[in-house]
Amino acid sequence: MNRQGKGRWAEEWAARYLAEQGWEILHRNYRCRCGEIDLIAVEGGVLVFVEVRGRTSDVCGLPEESLTLPKRRRLMAAAAFYLSRAAGKAGAGEGQREYRFDVLTLLHQKGRVVSFQHYRNALGAGGVVV
């Protein structure tokens, strides 16, 4: 499986996991001129922008360490674009006022998750993973 295939697999796993937890998945791979958001979902009335980081090994570091400052900035810019353009459209989180950024990281090998971590409200001031 190539790098893109591994990323798609991790995003699909994360979407299934969140849906099993009762989340409503609104968008997958939302793209705009500012960047991409892996998942946009609703949990308990809160709009959640989810970044999925997957790796097949921790030899080069943990998946959460791959969320660089430029990527965090693009994620926040894409979310701002989404909120300004799409939040009023039906099915796109209409009426959502509260939102947050979550990061879901996983280590996976041969189509099996070895470990995962869900960081809720992960991007603090300035987009820092807390």
In short:
The protein is 27% helix and 36% strand. By secondary structure, the chain is an alpha+beta fold.
Task: Describe the overall structure.
With 130 residues, this protein is α+β, with helices and mostly antiparallel strands. It has one domain (3-61, 70-119): 3-Layer(aba) Sandwich (Trna Endonuclease, Chain: A, domain 1). It is built from two helices and five strands. It has a five-stranded mixed beta sheet with strand order 1-2-3-4-5. The relative contact order is 0.19. The chain is 27% helix and 36% strand. It has helices spanning 3-20, 69-85, and strands at residues 24-32, 35-43, 46-55, 99-109, 112-119. Residues 125-130 have low confidence and may be disordered. The longest helix is centred in the N-terminal third of the chain and has 18 residues, at 3-20.
**Low-confidence segments:** 125-130
What is the H-and-E element order?
HEEEHEE
Strand order of the largest sheet: 1-2-3-4-5
Q: What is the typical, i.e. mean, pLDDT?
A: 80
Span between termini: 31 Å
Broad CATH class:
Alpha Beta
- Give me the CATH architecture, please: 3-Layer(aba) Sandwich
In terms of structural class, how would the helical and strand content be classed?
A: alpha+beta
| Fraction of residues in H or I helices | 25-40%
What percent strand? 35-45%
Per DSSP E runs of 2 or more residues, the count of β-strands stands at: 5
Total individual domains: 1
Biggest pleated sheet:
5 strands, mixed
Do you know the CATH topology? Trna Endonuclease, Chain: A, domain 1
Measured on Cα atoms, how large is the radius of gyration? 14 Å
Please tell me what the overall shape is.
Answer: globular
Count of DSSP helices?
2
